[in-house]
Specification:
The complex is a heterodimer of chains A (228) and B (205). Chain A is of the alpha+beta class. Chain A is built from 5 helices and 8 strands. Chain B has helices at 7-15, 28-33, 38-61, 71-93, 95-101, 112-122, 127-157, 179-204; strands at 159-160, 163-164. Classes of the chains: A alpha+beta (228), B mainly alpha (205).
């Protein structure tokens, strides 16, 4: 027999039966069970997922420093590239920000930096990798590590044709999103129909560069011992 | 309860007579979006199948506890849980495919096929019928996606699941792997299914 809502039940029991709590007990119990199950899944899989992301990051780093062609050439030559992960702590305007970064050394020389940064997109959090030259003056590459932007519109930020616009942009002037008019050297052409996603990525880049530029020093960076 | 379909009928109905894509026109978002290749299409079909089966089993088990005005919330909560689990599993063990499918895996939560089967079958019938229904509908969905994906990938790239099957001289019809190709293929297959159905009805009549 299916329980039914008895409107008009009287007395304390009747009031309890008609209360929101009694009505929703099944939902509360299911939420508790499902929540526990999801927590267990997250605990067991988060390490594997993080390792997958790290592997993808490491695969992308040469391309973010040297561009696709030279990265492929170095890979074919089996060139030695030392990638050291670390964390940079930035104290600015009474606030402290932390960024994951990777120092890239080739032939005993600093080849560049790759900074991992994130921020709010249109639909969900966007996570990107930004490549910088050794002097932190020029953007050498950009890769979107994670996004859930609108398919067909905002998710076009992942394609090289859009993200390659950031390559060779100077870091001394904040980038601006433009629609159609991309004459200015610091302008980024917005994805048609996805201005918010375009502004989100550009905003993350501006904020990150504003934070880290000139501050990548031995005092602010803590490198992990393990070289990758 | 006697007028409800048997488990076997539920199973068969999902594959062709009540195919979720061609007869009910449900789940069209992933049908159009992920069928530019056979691999993503099969992965999506498997993900929907797992969620559908899990949700149908849970809903069937608790069907006597459901309150009519709160049932949709329970369906959504159950579906969202299994979708999140599938999403995490894909991100852990099929990372590149998870990135290829992107938001379409989380979007299974709002896939009408699943909530429809919870409402039509699982909330009314026992676990056997609910499971048979889920498997039948999942096969039907998988066949629909496979059909569209094979046509689009072969004509659009000359390959199937990444293997070249067309002659090297084949001029790949790029439009087939782009969104218009999805609409064209789906429309033509839908017309074909309707034509076959109409022909069979005329013969019987």
């Amino acid at each position: 027999m299916k329980p039914t809502l008895k409107i008009g039940s009287t007395g304390a029991f009747g009031r309890f039966r008609n209360s929101n709590f009694a009505q929703a007990w099944l939902i509360l119990v299911l939420a508790l069970i499902f929540g526990s199950a999801l927590a267990a899944v997250q605990v067991n899989l988060s390490g594997v997922i993080a390792a997958n992301k790290l592997n993808e990051t490491l695969e992308r780093i040469p391309e973010l420093i040297w561009g696709t062609a030279k990265a492929a050439k170095l890979a074919s030559e089996n060139a030695s590239v030392d990638i050291t992960p670390g964390t940079v702590m930035i104290k600015k305007d009474h606030k402290t920000a932390y960024y994951s970064l990777f120092r890239v050394i080739h032939e005993s020389k600093l080849a560049g930096w790759v900074i991992k940064a994130g921020g709010q997109g249109y639909a969900d959090k966007i996570e990107i990798l930004i490549g910088l030259d050794p002097g932190e003056n020029i953007i050498t590459g950009l890769f979107v590590l994670e996004q859930k932007e609108t398919p067909g519109l905002g998710n076009k930020i992942i394609f090289p044709v859009w993200r390659n616009q950031f390559i060779r942009k100077k870091t001394n002037t904040p980038l601006v999103v433009a629609k159609g008019n991309i004459q200015a050297p610091n302008a980024i052409d917005a994805v048609t129909g996805a201005t918010i996603s375009s502004r989100s990525v550009t905003g993350i880049v501006n904020r990150t560069i504003g934070d880290v530029k000139g501050r990548l020093t031995p005092e602010t960076i803590r490198f992990y011992e393990r070289q990758l | 309860m006697t007028d409800l379909p048997t488990p076997f009928e539920r199973f068969i109905q999902g594959i062709l007579p009540e195919n979720p894509v061609y007869r009910q026109l449900l789940g069209l978002c992933p049908t159009l979006a992920v069928t530019n290749g056979l691999k993503p299409a099969l992965t999506m079909a498997a993900a929907v199948g797992v969620v559908l089966l899990s949700a149908n089993i849970i809903i069937s088990l608790i069907r006597h506890l459901l309150k009519p005005h709160l049932r949709i919330v329970v369906f959504t909560l159950t579906i969202a849980t299994f979708v999140t689990i599938v999403d995490r599993l894909l991100a852990a063990y099929m990372y590149q495919m998870s990135k290829t499918l992107g938001p379409y895996i989380p979007l299974i939560i709002v896939n009408c096929i699943i909530i429809c089967r919870c409402e039509v079958c699982a909330s009314r019938q026992n676990i056997l019928a609910a499971s048979a229904d889920a498997v039948g509908q999942a096969i039907g969905f998988g066949l629909a996606l496979t059909g569209i994906a094979v046509i689009r990938e072969v004509l659009g790239t000359g390959m199937i699941a990444g293997f070249q099957i067309m002659p090297a001289a084949w001029p790949s019809w790029v439009i087939m792997v782009l969104p218009p190709g999805a609409f064209l293929t789906f429309g033509l297959l839908l017309a074909l299914v309707n034509w076959i159905d109409a022909t069979r009805s005329n013969k019987k009549g």
